């Protein structure tokens, strides 16, 4: 029997990148999954059909805008109607903008705080009553190494991810006797299209070869000098959602090649 058979999951920001990797791993473990994110309707339909066929589980989709609290809460209700419950909530949606604090656009600040942090609050608030009533739940927030340490020019992202870690701890304490766990995963750089674009831009700015930019600029803080694999993050999500992780709660779990060990 698959470890998450008869469980249902909601993964935000899951039509591409890290979120899609998490959704695929949960489906492979037997969970029904609701996807969320941007994309062409035809492409999303094809993705949903592929995952359902490949893993023999129900796959649904909700287009909620994660910057809007009411849409986030409605998405949780949608998942509960679709599957009967949201057993596993993975808050993964996020955006980034880089600028000095005194030049940081206010609209970018507001969007990053809303999507990277406040959306977690709205989804957790909406999902908790049903989890409490059933006496079981897994809440997994995808934070960042920047939820534990800071870097220059990323004030909104660092603030949001630190806030996610704090919210994680508070929810864990409030639900410790309710059969619910709440944890944060704190990855370092993952080689997504967004990061690849940063590499190309840095190569131009520093007039350096791509591989040198990766090692000396992008991965400068990571002792192991390698990107974190999406499958590594997804594997930890599946473990945290399993019965084996029942006593892990309130943790900020690093997958960062030693970055925060310094």
Strand order of the largest sheet: 3-2-1-4-5-6-7
Elements, N to C (H/E): EHEHEHEHEHEHHHE
Mean pLDDT over all positions: 96
Give the termini separation. Answer: 41 Å
Question: Might you state the CATH topology name of the largest domain?
Answer: Rossmann fold
**Can you tell me the number of structural domains?**
2
What is the CATH superfamily label of the largest domain?
A: NAD(P)-binding Rossmann-like Domain
Give the percentage of residues in beta strands.
5-15%
Helix content: 40-55%
CATH architecture title of the largest domain: 3-Layer(aba) Sandwich
How many β-strand stretches? 7
**Structural class designation:** alpha/beta
Uncertain stretches of 5 or more adjacent residues: none
Structure report:
This protein folds into 2 domains: 215 residues, NAD(P)-binding Rossmann-like Domain (Rossmann fold, 3-Layer(aba) Sandwich); 37 residues, no CATH class. The chain has 8 helices and 7 strands, in the order βαβαβαβαβαβαααβ. A 7-stranded parallel β-sheet has the order 3-2-1-4-5-6-7, with helices on both faces. Helix 5 links the parallel strand 5 and strand 6. The radius of gyration is 18 Å and the shape is globular. The model has no long low-confidence stretch (mean pLDDT 96).
């Amino acid at each position: 029997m698959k470890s998450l058979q008869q469980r249902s999951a909601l993964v935000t920001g899951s039509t591409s990148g890290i979120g899609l990797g998490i959704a695929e791993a949960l489906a492979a473990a037997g969970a029904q999954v609701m996807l969320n994110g941007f994309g062409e309707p035809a492409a999303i339909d094809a993705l949903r059909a592929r995952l359902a066929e490949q893993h023999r589980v129900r796959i649904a989709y909700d287009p909620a805008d994660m910057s809007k609290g009411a849409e986030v809460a409605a998405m949780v209700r949608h998942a509960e109607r679709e599957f009967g419950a949201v057993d596993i909530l993975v808050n993964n949606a996020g955006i980034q903008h880089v600028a000095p604090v005194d030049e940081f656009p206010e609209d970018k600040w507001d969007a990053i705080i809303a999507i990277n942090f406040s959306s977690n609050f709205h989804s957790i608030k909406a999902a908790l009553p049903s989890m409490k009533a059933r006496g079981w739940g897994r809440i997994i927030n995808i934070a960042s190494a920047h939820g534990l340490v800071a870097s220059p020019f990323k004030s909104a992202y660092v603030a949001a991810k630190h806030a996610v870690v704090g919210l994680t701890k508070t929810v864990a304490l409030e639900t410790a006797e309710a059969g619910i766990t709440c944890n944060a995963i704190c990855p370092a750089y993952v080689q997504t299209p967004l990061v690849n674009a940063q590499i190309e831009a840095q190569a131009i700015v520093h007039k350096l070869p791509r591989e040198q930019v990766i090692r000396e600029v992008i991965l400068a803080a990571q002792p192991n000098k390698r990107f974190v694999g999406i499958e590594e993050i997804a594997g930890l999500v599946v473990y945290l959602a399993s019965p084996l992780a029942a006593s892990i709660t309130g943790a900020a779990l690093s997958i960062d090649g030693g970055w925060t060990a310094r």
